[in-house]
Design goal:
alpha+beta, two-stranded antiparallel ribbon, disordered C terminus
Amino acid sequence: MNETFELRFWEKVDKRGPDDCWQWIGAVDWAGYGLINSGGRGKILRAHRASVILDGRDPSGKSVCHSCDNRSCVNPRHLFVGSHKDNMADMAIKGRHGTKTKPERIVRGESHYWHRHPDRIKRGTDSPYFKLSQHDLQRLFFGDLVGVPVKDAAKELNISRATLSGIRTKVKNGTIKVDPVVSDQRSEDV
């Protein structure tokens, strides 16, 4: 790390007393950890790792852990270098293993968006990604494509064999409904 990097780093730190957390006021990632460009092309470092490097310690191949549990803290006194196992043990001792201590943060079951709004899910033939019309499904299951090998039926419908097999499975398990009445649209489509 060079002098310009060190200057850029420290101008993004709200430095307080020696035992206080030094907050990173630069860019942060989705998890709240500080980020800084290390000068290399696209080489981004987490700020707490950079702080340890600037302090003269080598975190290569190791985790840099916060003793203060403040993700944006870059005070070298609050950071220690350890293995992933050390980091997980520290997390467990402090009760920060999210799913066990804060189950309300996990979105699952009836609180999940799709469980609360099933009407907003487009499934089967209503999906904008569905490849076949109701008429094509009728041809496939009740019309001229019954008994035709998968390879030939897929070619006729202009879909892959995997897509055709998936559609057949979804019709069997009821995800896709097919009206058994075959209309006379075949002659119009040809």
